[in-house]
Amino acid sequence: MGFAEIIGQQKSLTILRSALANGRLHHAYLFLGPEGVGKHTIAVAVAKAIHCRDLENDFCGGCVNCRRIADGNHPDVRVIEPLSGKKEISIAQIRELERELNFRSFTGNRKVAIIDPATLMNLSSQNALLKTLEEPPPDCLIILLAANGGALLPTLRSRCLRLSFAPLARADVALYLQSQLDMNGGDAAFVAALSMGSIGAALALDKDEWVEKRRIWSGMLGSLKTRDYQGAMIAAEALASNRDEALKFLKWTESWYRDLLVYEVTKDSDQLVNLDMQVEILRQSAASNVESSLRAMVQTGGAAARIQRNLNRRMVLEKFLFGVVGGR
Ligand SMILES: [Zn+2]
Asked: Which three-class secondary structure state does DSSP give residue 176?
């Protein structure tokens, strides 16, 4: 184990490793990037490298400190996330963290706090953390993880050194799946293409279930004719019955319209996400155009956000699909 085995994010890793080696770690970082691209893995790796007993500025994964950090019970390393059953990181959690950061370190090394995701801190939690960052306790390292910085107070963001975590290259995700999960090359390439650069998404994919689901969804989108509002209503009602399914559908639909768009613009199938569905992509892109594919792709994000805010799912999906059938 060690930094050398982490796949992708080499730019951020280089910055962090050189800060570690030079004793110049900042006291607060903001790791910005989509879910599942390594933010948490790298934050924990830095904590291990600070506390590892066997290696200097790197981590072995096997010593007592590395193992306690991996198990979440090292006294100098805290991961702050919503308590079970809660949707937010509360001000009480942040106050408790502040208290702990002010204690002397158990091991004599830096105390580390990882806040994941920082965007689940409500306003008062963020304000409490801001106070801590304005007068940081000695020898502490606070790492905030977030998919985007928009939900964080600008004053909080400006107190942190920002590192960007981009989606991983498709080849990197495939490499991870082959090396860590012993997946064969063909399956790894397939799942990697669908994962949109997120190892987290790749791990959550059940390949067989996905093949079937995508077949049904793409068939449904393909069969919606111009002005087929009746068909769109039926599809919306079916998709609305389950919140997670509705969100999965929209996320996948984004990749589908992205594929149509890519093919319409480049006539090149190498960059498709839904690689195995090339025939259907060619068929649907022939009946569509750049403008409507782009519009549909953009609208998936808005629809997903409304469902996340708990607006009526059937109405949100109807509006989205009406846009699709009306836009051709
Ligand atoms: Zn170690």
From this structure: helix
